[in-house]
């Protein structure tokens, strides 16, 4: 009898991969973020990425980061976590988990708490002390939300999606390459999340 496939995605890898894939819908030229919410039964109930509100033109609103605040992206972009919560297809997400490619900001932390989500799994966090992330941590901890850093696989694991042929390959090797930096652990304040 043939054996089941051994080289497959763990649940956490699966949900974080979906968050990462969703981030690739973002039009933010600097930082693409994705989020995936699961309910208590491990079913996906919401997905989102950072982008402008419905009906607001990607071409008319600014995408810059500096200068006059009104002429930056910050007042206009909906965060990935916010979109995932608003897109949820189930009213009750109490006790759910949100997988997010970037640590949630304080505004998203409020939404996470109020929606009943009880766990956050994040892949990246901006280095140093950033007020929006410090305040978020304060709120999440106070509300009893579990904060967990995504545990990357012990060995190299990468997914390659070929949209031309419609094929996908999951490559894994026994050892992590020492020379190649892990993009999930190494981001600067200004860098793209996924290289
Ligand atoms: N947890 C987060 C944090 C940030 N975002 C979005 C908001 C912006 O589009 C971008 C951050 O801009 P940056 O200053 O890093 O270029 O990421 C989000 O969706 N979720
Ligand atoms: Zn946010």
UniProtKB/TrEMBL annotation:
Q: Could you tell me which residues belong to the region Disordered?
A: 172-195
Q: Which UniProt keywords apply?
A: Hydrolase, Metal-binding, Nucleotide biosynthesis, Zinc
Q: Which GO terms describe its molecular function?
A: dCMP deaminase activity; zinc ion binding
Say which enzyme class the record assigns.
Answer: hydrolase
Q: Per the entry, which co-factors are needed? A: Zn(2+)
Which InterPro entries does the record match to this protein? APOBEC/CMP_deaminase_Zn-bd, CMP_dCMP_dom, Cytidine_deaminase-like, dCMP_deaminase-rel, Deoxycytidylate_deaminase_dom
One family from Pfam that matches here is: dCMP_cyt_deam_1
Chemical reaction(s) catalysed: dCMP + H2O + H(+) = dUMP + NH4(+); 5-hydroxymethyl-dCMP + H2O + H(+) = 5-hydroxymethyl-dUMP + NH4(+)
**GO BP, one annotated term:** nucleotide biosynthetic process
User: What EC numbers are recorded for this enzyme?
Assistant: 3.5.4.12
Annotated membrane-spanning segments are none
Domain named CMP/dCMP-type deaminase is located at 10-147
Recorded GO CC terms: cytoplasm
Coiled-coil intervals, chain numbering: none
Q: Which family does it belong to?
A: Belongs to the cytidine and deoxycytidylate deaminase family.
Q: What does this protein do?
A: Catalyzes the deamination of dCMP to dUMP, providing the nucleoside monophosphate substrate for the thymidylate synthase/TYMS. Also, part of a nucleotide salvage pathway that eliminates epigenetically modified 5-hydroxymethyl-dCMP (hmdCMP) in a two-step process entailing deamination to cytotoxic 5-hydroxymethyl-dUMP (hmdUMP), followed by its hydrolysis into 5-hydroxymethyluracil (hmU) and 2-deoxy-D-ribose 5-phosphate (deoxyribosephosphate). Catalyzes the first step in that pathway, the deamination of 5-hydroxymethyl-dCMP (hmdCMP).
The protein's name in its UniProt record:
Deoxycytidylate deaminase
